[in-house]
Every structure is written in structure tokens, then in C-alpha cells.
Amino acid sequence: MVAALAKNTNYQLTAASTGIQLAGTPFPETETWSFNQQSPGPLLRLRQGQPTSIEVSNRLSQGITVHWHGLRIANPMDGVPVLTQAPIATGESFRYDFTPPDAGTYWYHSHMNTAEQVGRGLYGPIIVEEPAAPPVDRDLLWVLDDWKLDQQAQIVSDFDNPRDLARAGRLGNTVTINGKIPQALAVKAGERIRLRLINAANARIFALRFQRHRTLVIARDGQPLIPYEPGGPVVIGPAQRIDLVLDMTEQPGQRYPVIDVYYPQSPAQLTSLSYGPEPGRARGDEYPGLPLNPVPEPELGDPLVQRIELSGGDLGQLQNAQFGDQRLEMTRLYLLGKMWTINEVVSSGYSDPPLFTVRRGRTVILDFRNNSAWPHPMHLHGHHFKVLEHSRDREVTGKWLDTVLLGPEESAKVAFVADNPGDWLFHCHILGHARAGMMAVIRVS
Question: In degrees, to the nearest 5, what angle opens at C-alpha 390 toward C-alphas 384 and 392?
């Protein structure tokens, strides 16, 4: 998908059931839920600091909302049912009006019955243009996803599968880029490509190696950073975004695989870079980086420190947890489809009382501990946070994120200025984990 320049900032999105050729021939079309009869939905190309209006209409049999993932916008526009707005009922519409403060790569997705609606394709990409982005030859977008399909290429409806909920989440059997089975990317020797990665999968983590090519990370979760070469594969968890610069420095007429090595016992080729026959020019210039966004810097002198213990799931040590006004044994919670906790509390929905309340303008440190045997990409709505430390992933230290990935038994500390008032959702973006209890509300007063 080529990221064309913004022509307007007023959009119309219609959610409806749509047949899409996901699996390719000879399989039939897959019945998906989509925006504007495509999944991913249309690319919304917005302008930093310019007001945007997006009218969302619902033609599905379920209510929906739309969350603008990673955008630091006003709470009433955040798109969380009950918490920030009433669901958009079948046959009704809702207009979202906001001004994106940050340039970068973002995405939108339904936040009603999220595991199922996103798992059926109800999402799309957002690019907020920089006022003066450094030049590249091409600006490309890969929306990564996986789909759980049956033998007729239809979506398997077991979104409450206890095994998926209690373990790594819903992992599909059909991986796509921009809603299609990956094909080789045609490139030219000597060109420089900005490649924007969005992981829209319910649970799959990707770890990409671009064979024989230098990868330069220039932004994470929409936020620019000092360009750097990762020490290994490019790891991107559910809901995360990573912007890369790739220089095409290899041989004309050759192909070079892009390998997903996250599951080392079964590495898989995602796609390949296919060079045309034309010789290219040598590149000697370094990519200069992107202009920074106006994210407030945390003041670490007197922060509110909040411990965040992530527990539950199969192979975990948690014996019981609070669910509503009762403390229940884990065996009882499993029967209720609730396997995951934050600070030993199982979420009962978007109307939960706040995990904590913080005064507007104060710095908050979230001190994460993943006590489980499974990964958790933890996402905070309405804010970006700076990673102060991470027990394994040193590369994210000092970076701005809105979703931090914590593997089994890992820990991290992140800090943010609570400058956006309202009740904000905070949850694991393995969507089955959030559905099964790993979700909370943070109140900025």
C-alpha cells in the first residue's frame, strides 16, 4: 500500500459485512466485517494540527465504536463504548471530530466486542503527515494480520475459545499484508523506502529479518526517534507500529526473503524483496530522521508510582482474584471465561471503577511485572509514555510508545505526563486477554 498525500481531512466510514478474497484462488471469498467494503479499511491520511471529521455509519448487526489507536485526542472522541460514548447502534451514525497533535503512523479499529470485530477485519491505517518529512523514494505501508480460517476460507467463530484466551491468544493460520496473501515487493536497486509496519493481529507477534538489508528504525508507535539499527529482527507486537528505512543496496534481478523468526521452531517467509533488472546508484547519505512530536517530558522528581502486576492464564501461579465484589478461585473464573488480572483484579467491563486516579499534569510511573507464562502488549489510551527501563528489550529504553510488549516474567518501567483529562482504558492488546479480564481504567482528574 502506497501512502498517498492527504487531500482532505473529512472522511466517511461505513461498517458492513463484505466478501474479500483473503486466501486467494481456488478458495471462495471470506466473509469479513470491514470499513468501506475493504479490510484493512481505507487509509486515512491526516495533517498534524489540522481538525479532522470522520463520520462512522454502522450496517452490522452489532453495535460498534471506533478507537483511534495512538492518537492523543480528547476523551469523548476516544471511541470506547460506555466509557467515552454510547455504542453506534445498527443503522446509526456518529461523527468523530478531533485534531491530531502528533505526526506518524497510527491505526483505527472497533472497540466494541473488540476481539471478534477486529478479528473479523474491522480496522484500518492512519498516517498523520509530518510538516516536512525527510525525502524517500517511496513511502509504503504494510498492515500485518493473521486470520483463523476454516477449510472453506471462512472465519472460525470461536472467539471465546478457552485455550486461546488462557494462553498466547487467537493465532490465525493465514497471514496477510494489507488484506492479501503476501506477494513479492518489487524494488529497484538504489532506492530508499520508508516502510510503515502496523500489527493489526489479535495476538500474533512478528519478528522480521530483512535478509541482506540494513534496517533502520526511525519511529515507534508513531513517535520519531534517533534512527538506529536493531540488534536483531524487528519485533512488533499486536497494536504496535514501527517505521523503517530500507536502502535497496543488493543485486538487480535477485530476490531476498523477509523472514518471520518470532517462533524459532518454525520460521516462515513472510514475503521477499524482488529487484528489477535496472542497475542502481550507490547511496552514501544517511537518513536524517524525523521532526519530534510535542509529547510532554515526564518530571521524575515526584511521580505517582503505580505497580502493575500482570497475572493469570495457563501455567500461572495465581490462585484466586477479585471479580466484582467477590474473590473467586481461578477454576471458577475459568468457567466464567475470565483468566487474566491486573493487580489480581479481573475486569468485568468498561464500567469498572478506576485502577487509580491522578491529578492532571502529574507524572505517572507504571512499574510493570509480568508474572505469567505468556506475553502481554500493554496499551494506554490517550497518552504516550517513555520507557525508563525494560528487563529484556534494551532497545526500547528512552523511546516513546503507547504499547509496551512484556514477555513472560519480564518487567519494565514507563513514565508519562497525565495531561489528558478523562477516564482512559488500559489493557492488554492480545484482545482475548483483554476480553478475559486484563483491562482497567485510569482516571485523570
Answer: 135
Please state, as a whole number, how many other Cβ atoms lie within 10 Å of the Cβ of residue 199.
25
Q: Extract the C-alpha cell encoding 5.
A: 498525500
pLDDT of 135 reads 87
Is residue 67 within a helix (H) or strand (E), and if so which, with residue range?
Answer: strand 66-69
The residues of the chain that CATH labels 2.60.40.420 are: 10-130, 141-275, 304-444
| Residues 105 and 445 sit within 8 Å (Cβ to Cβ) | no
CATH superfamily to which 141-275 belongs = Cupredoxins -  blue copper proteins (2.60.40.420)
**Across the chain, what does the average pLDDT equal?**
96
Other Cβ atoms less than 10 A from the Cβ of 388: the count is 16
Joined grid coordinates for residue 343? 493487580
The 8-class DSSP code of residue 303 comes to P
Domain 304-444 has CATH 2.60.40.420: yes
180: DSSP letter: B
**Which amino acid belongs to residue 339?**
M
Please state which of the ranges 3-12, 108-117, 247-256, 434-443 shows the lowest mean pLDDT: 3-12
Task: Decide: 426 and 355 in contact? Cβ < 8 Å.
Answer: yes
CA angle 222, 409, 170 (to 5 degrees): 65
Residue 26: asked if its preceding bond is cis (omega within 30°), the reply is yes
Q: How far apart are CA 29 and CA 44, in angstroms?
A: 25
